[in-house]
UniProtKB/TrEMBL annotation:
The entry's keywords: Signal
Keyword Disulfide bond: no
Cross-referenced InterPro entries: 6-blade_b-propeller_TolB-like, SGL, SMP-30/CGR1_Lactonase
Ranges annotated as spanning the membrane: none
Signal peptide coordinates: 1-22
Lineage: superkingdom: Bacteria
Residue span(s) of domain SMP-30/Gluconolactonase/LRE-like region: 125-308
Organism (species): Stappia taiwanensis
Protein name per the record: SMP-30/gluconolactonase/LRE family protein
Matches recorded under Gene3D superfamilies: TolB, C-terminal domain
Amino acid sequence: MSRCLVFLSVFLLSMSSGLVPAAASEWRILAQFDDAPEGLVADGKGGFYVSLFHSGHVMQVAKDGTVRKVADLRTVIGSAKGSTVGIDWDGADKLYVAFSEYSKRFPWPAKAKLSVEACGDATVTRSGLYAVSLSTGTVEPVVTRADGYPFCFPDDPVIASDGSIYLSDLSLQAIWKIDPKEKSAVLWSKDPLFSPGDKSLSGYPVGVNGIALAGDESALFGVTGGIPMLVKVPINADGSAGKAEMLTFGYDNMDGLEVDAEGNFYLTETLRSEIWKVSPDARKREQLGNPLQAPLGAPASLAFGAEDICVTNLNFFKHLPEEKANSIACRKLGAPLW
């Protein structure tokens, strides 16, 4: 077979499997900040709310890219060093934001293990979930380690229709369930599937990161980082967690997750800086972007805009140059391949 025919065969195969990445022209940078953005959620007006990783600021980005600050976690957490991570909105006046404080005894992120030892540091009291009132900009703790809960690295909150909040814990390798009115929490799932044990494939022995609810709230989905995969946790009739099951694997260190109205999954990989769309049955996938064709650098959280999907560039591994870093990147969603 000639080289041309070999190339054509490989090209057609890649097209049929959905592995052809998006062209650079399909991606654009919506907004940039003076700090790395991490959490992202739509604001119902064509824009987004976003959390900034180091500063603790919570920003709103209009659909034209205009940025304004809506709150500052520092008014409550003070000078505590840590990561301001995932964010979700209740559709009314409350944003819920996860914060993970670093231990002075076991500093993070200097170690790839994310300092699990720090989870037992009694001086760490700020890690937990915080509520931002949009009408006033005030911040208040919902549940934190100061309340006696052993949060390790609270990461991504998701609000259910009954007002309860699921919260992933990256280093504890678990998912919490929180009652924001009662300001109480229970360890909802610590399924063995979340834990890589001593066999981390990504090099990061961490658990579940981004989470998202099924449309009918019959299950909670999550992406894991240590042994990267998409998992499903059934929600039992009594609200308890069922046994987790793997839906798909074959990725690197995974971070963000969203589910659209048709049940398709959208995933981010931080180490390879890739965005993937996965079919509802998890048997087909389409690459929406990688750093060779798009301004992507350790993409973290995802959110849907009016006609596009956007991601925060945490740029943890310095893939992006300064003029493109600390940004939100977006692309229009075209017709699906399946």
